[in-house]
């Protein structure tokens, strides 16, 4: 660099101080980012009682009802200016019952995919031999025989949870001869 770092800072000094002052002023101002409904709700509505009371009212209060409720909360101590109140009321009044983030969402269901017989066979039974071997047995043996075979495979090292074993046995027992994807 042709200009030294110090020279640069000295000349830019005035600008820097002004910029710093502005930055400080912005930092000192209440967070305007919270102006949107979700941000306001998180910042102003859950400190005293969590989101549950509001969740219970979603879709059951009209705009007037929310206006009344939010005013009550404001009187009770919720920090809100006029603009924030309006933004919050508009947002709450438009939300459908059960909507996030006002209402907690149920945990994502565990993937059921991995627990059906076909997926189990195609993932747990293909590590040592291909499924042609399994295909040959389709319809040629009863349920007990499949149970015995799968037990033997588990003893040989097949990674099958005990509670998944019945899914595999039922799947193989009911699968018609020649059926894909077990048969090529
Ligand atoms: C300073 C504490 C406080 C804050 C902040 C607060 N609330 Fe409340 N809220 C209460 C109390 C206390 C009650 C129970 C008494 C009542 O129903 O008036 C309540 C009750 C409620 C109810 C149930 C009222 C009913 O009729 O069943 C709703 C809905 C609600 N609050 C929504 C909100 C919303 C939306 C906000 C954000 C604007 C908020 N609250 C912020 C204290 C607070
Ligand atoms: C850890 C390796 C391994 C895994 C995983 C495995 N197998 Fe096997 N499988 C073998 C071996 C070794 C043989 C040959 C010896 C035997 O039959 O016991 C075999 C043979 C077979 C046979 C032919 C023998 C017979 O009884 O008809 C079938 C059918 C079979 N396996 C089905 C399965 C099924 C269903 C699964 C998934 C639950 C599975 N295998 C997973 C190792 C494995």
Notes on the structure:
This protein is mostly helical and 184 residues long. The chain has 2 domains: 32-104, Orthogonal Bundle (Cytochrome Bc1 Complex, Chain D, domain 2), CATH 1.10.760; 113-174, Cytochrome c-like domain (Cytochrome Bc1 Complex, Chain D, domain 2), CATH 1.10.760. Helices cover 58% and strands 0% of the residues. Helix 2 packs across helix 5. The relative contact order is 0.09. Mean pLDDT is 82; it is low at 6-31. Bound molecules: heme C (2 copies). One heme C (HEC) binds at residues 44-45, 47-49, 53-54, 57, 69-70, 72-73, 76-78, 80, 88.
Summarize this entry quickly.
The protein has 184 residues and is mainly α.
Structural features:
Cytochrome Bc1 Complex, Chain D, domain 2, 2 domains, single chain, 9 helices
CATH fold-level topology of the largest domain: Cytochrome Bc1 Complex, Chain D, domain 2
Bound molecules: heme C
Largest sheet: none
Note poorly predicted spans: 6-31
Briefly note the structural class of the backbone: mainly alpha
Mean pLDDT: 82
Helix count equals: 9
Provide the CATH top-level class of the largest domain. Mainly Alpha
What proportion strand?
Answer: under 5%
Q: What is the total domain count?
A: 2
Shape: rod-shaped
Q: Tell me the quaternary state.
A: single chain
What's the helix-strand series? HHHHHHHHH
The CATH architecture term of the largest domain is: Orthogonal Bundle
Number of strands: 0
| Secondary structure: helix percent | 55-70%
